[in-house]
Amino acid sequence: MASLISQTTSNSRIQLAATAVVSAAVATTAILAFQRLQQDSRLSRLKQSIPDPADSKGALQKLSRHSLPKPDKEDEYNQILAQRAQNGDFDDELILEQLARNRVFLGAEGLDKVRNAFVVVVGCGGVGSHAAAALARSGVSKIRLIDFDQVTLSSLNRHAVATLADVGIPKVQCLQRRLIAITPWVRFDLRLQKFDGKSAAPLLASWEGGQGAGQKPDFVVDAIDNIDSKVDLLKYCWDHDLPVISSMGAGTKSDPTRVMVGDIGTSTDDGLSRATRRRLKLLGVTSGIPVVYSTEKMSEGKAALLPLADDEFQKGSVGDLGVLPDFRVRILPVLGTMPAIFGYTAANHVILKITGYPIDYIPAKARDKMYDGILAFVQSSEERIVRTAEGGSPEAGMGLKVPLTTGDISFLAEELYRGRSVLTGIPTKLVLVRWKKPRESTLIRIGEGDAEQKSSNLRLRDLVCMTKEEALRHQKLVLGGNKTTEELYGAEVISKVAALRKIAEAYEPHR
């Protein structure tokens, strides 16, 4: 053994190899130590350069038009740091290190796009606060926060950053107060104001002052839970080509696996989204707005939005019970985790869109195929009606066009009839079929010969939702026979259909 060691140590090649390994290890250690010392030095210089708030003698300047009530020393320290960072006096290497994971994921170019972005968050409660926090942590450098409300004790179960010390202050200030301690280089524009149609233009205007002045919003996050304000915001964004993502209702939801992103036309199992879609449809907006929503259905034992108690109505006008006119007057049942999921999902969408990262969301329940199938059934049904009216000629229905889109099908089947048969409430194998037998020909001809166009005079109000089996029976007895709907169905069904057809008629001018 001793001779082996002696031979090994006397071998010049082995000695050189060992020397190289040791030298490499020493060099690596020295480089890492030097980098760590540089980092520590940067942090030390940064901290030492900030004056003690107790000795600042008014050096602290307001970062917004609203000031926090009696800021403590930590607040003053954070605001001084934020002021200096926003003025460019902050080592960029430290920022890049804080955003290192994002940079690796999105690439240097993608992170640059995020850092140069301007995002508006409207509504800074449970959903909006988490969205704003995620955007700031991800590197968005210009964030406008819009909300009129204050932090309350009941806010603390779902707000991203609020503490007991924040109760009573505006939510926009609460977010800035906490987030500048995490990302001091982010510039916040605080708007303590309720969003509505009249205030839309100034609240969604370009960035004002400093670096990025004149920059239009790269994205708008709708985290409003008031239907009027939500519709005003989405319509304004639609009209002015502002990219927006809207959060539907997180209230009464409990299943995080059902939260997804899709077009506003596909979000069906939520009261807020249903009301929003109907109002937007009246304004001519039927699709093209991405939304965060839940496909979770309500069932026995789950939380639900209960009606106001009778004694509340005795107090006077229900509208007078709210903190503001036309604002909510009830406490929504909300599981604190769900608004966070909605908010982070919205922020995730914004980041992916701004950077151009590939998005491949799972389609909602393969609804497109279902709508195509229903549209095909309507098409064949209309062709059959035309052939019967034209004496049974097979050519009469050939090339017939139906004035419906899959958006119309979605509205009727999902929104109006809630995905159930109007006769039995069965939710499977649904189709749309004419309710009444036409009294005259439904065929519309335009042009002649090869240029002739044939279409049906079908309207939204003409169609009702049934299962396929029910529709085939209805076609045979009513549309192709001599039975009337009054003879075939009960008074309750007749009344229900009449009310729904009236709603459909109101939507027809806005298609």
TrEMBL record:
InterPro entries: ThiF/MoeB/HesA (IPR045886), ThiF_NAD_FAD-bd (IPR000594), Ubiquitin-activating_enz (IPR035985). Its main location: mitochondrion. GO terms for molecular function: ATP binding; tRNA threonylcarbamoyladenosine dehydratase; ubiquitin-like modifier activating enzyme activity. It comes from the Eukaryota. Residues 101-360 form the THIF-type NAD/FAD binding fold domain. Keywords: ATP-binding, Ligase, Membrane, Mitochondrion, Mitochondrion outer membrane, Nucleotide-binding, Transmembrane, Transmembrane helix. The keyword Mitochondrion applies. GO terms for cellular component: mitochondrial outer membrane. Residues 48-73 are annotated as: Disordered. It is a multi-pass membrane protein. Signal peptide: none annotated. GO terms for biological process: cyclic threonylcarbamoyladenosine biosynthetic process. It holds the Pfam family ThiF. The chain crosses the membrane at residues 14-34. It is found in: Mitochondrion outer membrane. Catalyzes the ATP-dependent dehydration of threonylcarbamoyladenosine at position 37 (t(6)A37) to form cyclic t(6)A37 (ct(6)A37) in tRNAs that read codons beginning with adenine. Belongs to the HesA/MoeB/ThiF family. This is THIF-type NAD/FAD binding fold domain-containing protein. It comes from Lasiosphaeria hispida.
